[in-house]
Amino acid sequence: MLAISPERRITVAKALTHPIFDEFHDPEDEPVADPLLPYDFNFEKYDLTNDQLMDLLYDEIQLYHDETLLDAYIEDRMLNPEGTVAAKFGLKQAQN
């Protein structure tokens, strides 16, 4: 579950069937949510440095402390649903 690469990461559905969760797993009582938008995980498409990842983490933390930044984030998300990581750092998509 903690694999950084999304291709290697276990799915939620598969994780729920893992033996470690046997005593908690109840298919009748496990709500399903809509998938997250690609915008939220756009950073996974790029080979980012630790400093770039820390910048993104700092930016996200600020959303909880500044409503102006949160409003700008929401507007950007609507204007750029596929994300803006490449524009922020001047990157090309990583080759997989």
Describe what this molecule looks like in 3D.
The protein has 96 residues and is mostly helical. The protein has one domain. The protein has 4 helices and no strands. It has helices at 12-16, 50-62, 67-79, 85-89. It is globular. The two termini are 20 Å apart.
What keyword list fits this structure?
globular, 4 helices, 96 residues, mainly alpha
Q: What is the strand and helix layout of this fold?
A:
Layout: H1 12-16, H2 50-62, H3 67-79, H4 85-89
pLDDT averaged over residues? 86
Structural class: mainly alpha
Instruction: Report the order of strands and helices.
Output: HHHH
Strands, count? 0
What's the helical proportion of residues? Answer: 25-40%
The major β-sheet equals: none
In terms of DSSP E residues, the strand content is under 5%
Count of the domains: 1
Q: Enumerate how many helices there are, as a single number.
A: 4
Distance between the termini: 20 Å
Uncertain runs: none
- Over all CA atoms, what is the radius of gyration? 17 Å
Shape: globular
A few lines on this structure:
The chain has helices at 12-16, 50-62, 67-79, 85-89. With 96 residues, the protein is mostly helical.
